[in-house]
Amino acid sequence: MRIDISGDSLPNFKNLNGVDGVIYGRYNKVNSVNPYKCRFVAVYPDGKEIFGINLFTTGWDEIPNGLNGLRYELSTGHIIQIPKYKAYMPQIEVSFGMDGSRIFHFINVHCMAEKEVVIYKIVLREDQLSPQKIGDIIMSKQALPEIVCKSWKYTS
Amino acid sequence: MAVVITSKFHQESEWKDISKVVFTSPNMVSPATAGTRSHVLPGQGDLGTWYEDTSYMYRVEEEQKITESDYYNFLSTTTMDLDLDLPSPYVTVTGTTDNYEIFYGYIKEGVGCTAIGYTQLSMGAVVQDIRVKLEYSTGATSPDEKGYLGNVTSTTINTPGDTTKDVYGLSVDFDAGDTHNNAWVVDVIGGTPECYIEVDLDKPYKITKIFMRGEYAYDSSGSSYFHKRFFGNYKIYGKLLQSDTWVELYDGANTTEIETTVFLSSNDKYFRYYKVVMEDNGGLTGFDTDYYALSSLQFFTFEYDNTPTRDKPMYNFKDNGGADIVYINDITDIGGSEYKLHISSTTGSGTLASGTSLRGWGTLTSRVDYQMDDSIVFEVTVGEAYNCRLTAWDDVTHSTTNNELIQGDHVRLSALAFCASNSKLEPSESYSPINYVYGPVHNRILKGNTVHMGQNYFYGDFDLVYRFQSGVYGDFLIFKPMLYGIDSSISYGVHDYVITLHYAYT
Predict the structure, then answer these.
(1) Is the predicted pLDDT of residue B388 greater than 70, yes or no?
(2) With helix as H, strand as E and coil as C, how does B182-226 read?
(3) Which residues of A touch B3 (CB under 8 A)?
(4) CA-CA distance, B365 to B144, in Å (whole number)?
(5) Complex ipTM value
(6) Which of B55, B396, B400 is best to mutate for the A interface (most A CBs within 10 A)?
(7) How far away is chain A from the Cα of B490, in angstroms, using its nearest Cα?
(8) Is the pLDDT of residue A70 over 60?
(9) CA–CA separation, B427 vs B410, rounded Å?
(10) How far is it, in rounded angstroms, from Cα B399 to Cα A95?
(11) Mean per-residue pLDDT over chain B, rounded
């Protein structure tokens, strides 16, 4: 037995159902999406849709290039449609505690435009301290990457 | 790709699997059963860190120690400004003495220059002391050959004759008028034949060749009196520090020749102390085996060409662990303890002012000087983890720092992110483009995502990726959580907190 940082257990989640779960702390209470029930949907020009698995193992790196659209479906029913860009690279932002606890914070969808990268930060949890709610989107920008890794998936 | 990160815990020279890191009062007999940790109660011990297996708790220390070692072996100081955006072809450095003044050879080897020969050490200048085994020191009584050891009790070996001469240097004194060549000669003590000569050098050297010569002597008044002495079976050892254990470097045997040349492995490390252990005179033919004798002892190091084959990163670490990197592809000794580092490229921007410290992961020991005990190491075995950050929170919500230990700056951590060679869990130098993934921090206070006065109260952010280069492992993140300044002022009650690794993956 070891600290299973790559596992899919959620010992700190309570009342986890098909929609969401609760994490109780001493001073804060967090509502989180059910990470087992959140996924991406990659849409291709022929109408084919490839569904992601969940937030632990997304399956993103296995999908082909040439997609025509991208959306995220959260367990809470939120559907976040990402506009079309040259390429996408979503990243799941998570914190893992040495006691085995885990919090899913955001899906950071990196979208490659002509001169910059636009980031759609999809909020996955809400609490009593942060103003963001599940499903909110925080936009930001950053410079184009110097090295493009294989996780970037190009649109058609 | 979902990242896969494995973990290990290092204690008592072993890597162990653990399931949790917990913090509690050590008021129980160690080892305690997992899950029985308690709160701080009146009259009970201070808080400590424990690492928990499913059925066992590894006790760390009641009074936890901060780390003190650095994570690099070499330091140099620039003597000119360096523009990182448009770097000049070189930067001059000095102040390379903190690690034994072997900077030149370290850079030469680091940039992959080829050894093309040997450089003879000036033994008279570099040998600081010589010792022999005590029995052989006190056994010298007569004024003839055995009298050569008359001064050994004062730790110096003198050879006979009008001129005092140490047993080193390429002695070729075989003049016809001599009664013998200058030599250290000693009786072999029956029953305890092992004898040694220890040589202390002024600093560590990577000795790659050793020349030794026995005694060859005759009486100029007649041809009947003849000596031919050496030693038979022997071993050569080295160690870096006086407190280290001797490392066997060579196991040899002399037979019929009066001299021998030993070539040590190029993989051997830098050592400051060397020892020749004479085991017995077995195998010697044509020698007087009642004696051990040595007239010459000469050390050599590699001589390198001027054709580097790789770049070597030197780091300007910043307060929070980030670094500017200056990639070096050669070195020139310009005298006055100053060197010219030839630059191939740089990262970062702006100007490094003269006087900036450039640090490198050296080959002195080939191991990063990290205090691994009670540390946890993460290794990425699949995929990439982006924007990694180690920090601490009050509880499982990973959102508040409302905690007496966190607010009191008691929760701390020393950490380093690196890639390595040789062995997966031994932090050793690699010649991949980088050695340090993220620079070291010592005793860093953890407090959520707080940034105050330019100081991060966390460790990060950096990327950890799985490496698949030959002989390069990683990436690794090693960290040692600790509780600092815990005393009786801590209130009674529950003080749990959570150290977290915050990261992103695809």
Answers:
(1) yes
(2) CCEEEECCCCCCCEEEEEEEEEEECEEEEEEECEEEECCCCCCCE
(3) 6
(4) 44
(5) 0.96
(6) B396
(7) 19
(8) yes
(9) 27
(10) 10
(11) 78
Q: Which residues of A touch B7 (CB under 8 A)?
A: 2-3, 5
> Which of the two residues, B4 and A75, has the higher pLDDT score?
A75
Instruction: Flag if A94 and B503 touch (Cβ within 8 Å).
Output: yes
Give CA–CA dist A150/A26, Å, rounded.
42
C-alpha distances (whole Å) from B319 to each of A101, B323, B502 are 30, 9, 20
> Could you tell me the residue ranges of all domains in chain A?
20-154
Between chains, do B504 and A151 touch, taking CB under 8 Å as contact?
A: no
Tally of helices (H runs) and strands (E runs) in chain B: 4, 35
Residues of A in contact with B499 (CB under 8 A): 97-98
Structure tokens of B378? Answer: 């993460």
Q: Is B4 in the A-facing interface, judged by CB distances under 8 Å? A: yes
In this prediction the pTM is: 0.77
What ranges make up the beta strands (E) of B368-458? 375-382, 384-393, 411-421, 436-445, 451-452, 455-456
What tens digit of pLDDT does each residue of B134-192 get? 566 433 333 343 333 333 333 333 333 333 334 544 444 444 444 455 667 777 877 88
* Closest-CA residue to B10 (of B69, B58, B47): B58
Residue B285: CB atoms within 10 Å: 10
Q: Does B53 touch chain A (CB under 8 A)?
A: yes
Is B498 in CB contact (< 8 Å) with chain A?
yes
Both tokens of B338, joined, read 């100053």
Between chains, do B378 and A57 touch, taking CB under 8 Å as contact? no
Higher pLDDT residue, A11 or B73?
A: A11
Residue in B closest to A7 by C-alpha: B4
Which whole-number Å values give the CA distances from B105 to B44, B89, B110, B341, in the listed order?
55, 20, 8, 13
Tens digits of residue pLDDT in B12-38: 777 888 877 776 655 555 555 666 655
Chain A, window 82-111: residues with a beta carbon less than 8 angstroms from a chain B beta carbon: 89-101, 103, 105, 108
The residue whose two tokens read 């990639």 is B327
For residue A101, the chain B residues in CB contact (below 8 A) are 396, 398, 498, 500
Of A57, A95, A99, the CB nearest to B502: A95
- The DSSP line for B25-36 is ---SPSSPPTT-
Other C-beta atoms within 10 Å of A2: how many?
17
Chain B residues 12-31 within an 8 A CB cutoff of chain A: 17-22
Distances in whole angstroms, Cα of residue B391 to Cα of each of A128, B317, B414, B446, B450? 21, 20, 11, 5, 9
DSSP H or E segment with residue B407: helix B404-407
Structure tokens at A37: 């029930």
Residue B466 neighbours by CB under 8 Å, 6+ apart = B3, B4, B380, B381, B382, B383, B384, B474, B475
Which of helix, strand or coil describes residue B232?
A: coil
Domains of chain B: 4-70+367-504 (no CATH), 74-114+307-360 (2.40.10), 117-304 (2.60.120.260)
